[in-house]
Predict the 3D structure of the following.
Amino acid sequence: MQAEPAEHNKVQRVRRLWLLRHGATDWNLAGQLCGQHDVPLAAEGRAQARWAARRLQYERISRVYTSDLARATQTAAIVMRSHPEPGSLHVDAAWREASFGEWEGLTFAQIAERYGPQPGFFTDPLHYTPPAGEPFSQLVQRVQTAFADLMQTAASDPEAAGDILLVSHAGALRVLLCTILGLPFERQWQLRLNHGSLSIIDFVPDGSLESATLVTLNMQPPARRSQAARTAWQALKEGSSPHV
């Protein structure tokens, strides 16, 4: 029998990684930064997680990774309860949101009032850290290391045909997407990731970071996409950031 071309074998090894931002919390709905405060899902956040569960119900999920913060683990649990074969669960603090230190619990307007109209973190995160917060370089390092470990595990996973689900936070997911797409981290705010949204990355497990491809960004129900657009437009008119 003739051997299959090497390029065909490479295509066969591609794995699919679903990125799920956790559902909303009461703090999120009030515009407050959660950071590493362990705030649970709000009722709206649980509804968002149920939508994601329905979307993923018939996908073959072989592994689920999640941040150890409650809003992420609760989102993952809702998805797994609805899935006939959800695969194994792996809770990892490396996928946590960044710590915003003294800013946690504050709104963007409150941060601007107390720390200046345009705090440096939102334009130059590599050189500006929120007071008592986590340096952005530390967030980048742990996310990139965790993704490299995920890729290595996928390469040796006997259930190579299954997809992988990662439940995490906007900050960590934006860092991952910037890394994969080669975007400067200063442009992370251009990547919209709404609560409960799904994005898709295809990657070659034993390849480099450059082998990963963004397939879908910020998938959500049509009605919520319309609401997100209205929210973004309103925020721009008011001179605030819809991404906080």
